[in-house]
Design goal:
CATH class of one domain: Alpha Beta
Number of strands: 11
Helix content: 10-25%
CATH topology of one domain: tt1808, chain A
């Protein structure tokens, strides 16, 4: 059985929420990422938000798409994790743009992963900080490096440009069968 472009393999239990989810190859990779964040990096389940609906705008055009994971410490977003199959390099700019729109401040770390490899980027500049899952910052590292004093606000102009970039990369450039994006003209909830 297939849904959109995903082969449905059955169901699985989401480790963060305990909910039963449709089991696809992509969802298995997302669960692998969750396992890594919890078991290796030391984050608590309540510090990881999954499948967050984000509205992006480019002028009058608006759409919703899902952010895979946002990791927060003490109520402040400190890391965005963007999963997508295939080439990770093509996700760098949109992951960095996410860091400028998901919170009132610049989220300091972006992780881009295809589930097999991971690259860690500086959320404000997009500069590569490390390669591999082992480069994903652990909870104590993030806590020590990114206190409230080091978090920068995002100007409205920079946020607007980041939203336009996200719209171009994630909405205009998306596959027509991608069910994770609610495009203009679709009924909210049909796709996301």
């Amino acid at each position: 059985m297939a849904e959109g472009h995903h082969l449905i393999l059955g169901t699985l239990v989401d480790r963060l929420t305990g909910r039963t989810l449709v089991d696809t190859h992509d969802e298995r990779y997302r669960q692998k990422i969750v396992d890594y964040l919890l078991d290796v990096c030391g984050f608590a389940p309540e510090e990881i938000e999954a499948s967050i609906r984000l509205e992006v705008a480019a002028g009058e055009k608006r759409a919703l798409f899902l952010v895979d994971f946002i990791v927060s410490l003490h109520g402040m977003a400190v890391m965005v994790v963007r999963y997508a199959p295939g080439s990770m390099v093509t996700r760098y700019r949109s992951a960095q743009a996410l860091c400028l729109v998901v919170a009132p401040h610049e989220v300091p770390v972006a992780v881009v992963t295809n589930g097999q490899e991971a690259d860690v980027l500086h959320g404000g500049t997009g500069q590569i900080m490390g390669h591999g899952f082992q480069a994903i910052p652990h909870r104590p590292d993030l806590e020590a490096r990114y206190g409230e004093a080091s978090i920068k606000a995002v100007s409205s102009r920079r946020r607007e440009m980041a939203q336009r970039l996200l719209y171009a990369y994630e909405v205009d450039g998306s596959c027509p069968c991608d069910t994770s994006i609610c495009k203009p003209g679709s009924v909210e909830g049909d796709n996301v």
